[in-house]
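Service request form, structural biology core

Requester: graduate student, group of Dr. S.
Request type: structure prediction, single chain
Budget code: on file
Notes: please return the result as structure tokens.

Sequence provided:
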Amino acid sequence: MSGIADKSDVQHIGADHQLSSPRPSYGKRWILWTSLLLLLLLVVIVFVVIHRNEAKAAAAKRAQAAVKPSVTATVSIAAKGSIGIYLDAIGTVTPVYTASILAQASGVLTAVHYREGQFVQKGDALIEIDPRPYQAQLLQAQGTLERDNNVLAQAQMDLERYRTAWAGNGISKQVLDDQEKLVLQDRGTVKNDQGTANYDQVQLSYCHITAPIAGQTGLRLVDPGNVVQANASTVLVVITQMQPTTVIFTMAEDSLGQVQARMRKLHTLPVEAWDRAQTAKIASGKLFTINNQIDTTTGTVKLRAQFDNKNGALFPNQFVNTRLLVNTLEGVTLVPTAAVQHNGQVAFLYVIANGVASVRNITTGVADGGMTSVTGINPGEVVATSSFDKLQAGSKVVVSKQAASANLSVGNAP
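Core staff response, request fulfilled:
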């Protein structure tokens, strides 16, 4: 019984415990909902503030973009002047004379007078060949000539005697005629001897080799003691004329007409020789001649220009860029080529007036020496020559003090 009583007591105590447990109050719920509402309100306020700040920043950017900043640029002044029309081509320096001297007499070289790279004048001694064999041949020929001259003289004296005897009927006419023919034979023998002596004299002169032209010698090809053969292919020395020299270049046949027309009017045209990179002018010359045929395989014609080459800047077989002046345009408007901008097929300039840039479409013409002829702009107007990545229509321009004077002087150059 005690066990059953204890069990009922436990169940009663448990029921009383359940009835006495705390229940959630309405005050705590109200605090929770209030906190949530305040948190939501805070989020809304932060969102509104951020949105307003972003709107203000965007408005500031738009306002800043609407105000165009000043652009610092170099400028130049469009000028009225003249500009040349050139035909450009690649040319080769070709000497007027080049002499490759060969041996015309056989023998041992006894002396070489020239130095490598020496400038020699016409007639200067170059090489000596042992002359003794040729001196002996000449002496022999002269001896034969002298003997036959005396034989001829004796025959002529006999002829005079025969004529006197025939006049006195001392001899027959046949004897006189025979003597006359004998004199003629002796004269022929003397002429033959004289020719042999002259030939030997020429052969002897070949032993003393002189410069046939004025020019510069090349590398030494032979030395004293070498044996040379007459009419062999061994070159003894090469002499190249350096002053004056010429440049041969080609031109398209389509340009031949205007070049010939200018040649008939002016008789000659200026030609400039520039280096391979076309950055420095080497020499100035004149058009010398035009070839008489057009190359049908290339459709070009060769021209030769002559240069004084006093400073030796043009060297034989050197490749140069030639510029042939075929015409000059007078009274055109010139601007620096660097000022001309392109938008597709349209060329334009940034014209600066009262410190503000404006875009001006132009038509370009001939370009030369960093200047371009244009139409669509008047001489005296100021154009920008730099800062094109920042310039636009309506931009305020501040002229760069560092390059302003230089650019203005270039713009004024014809």
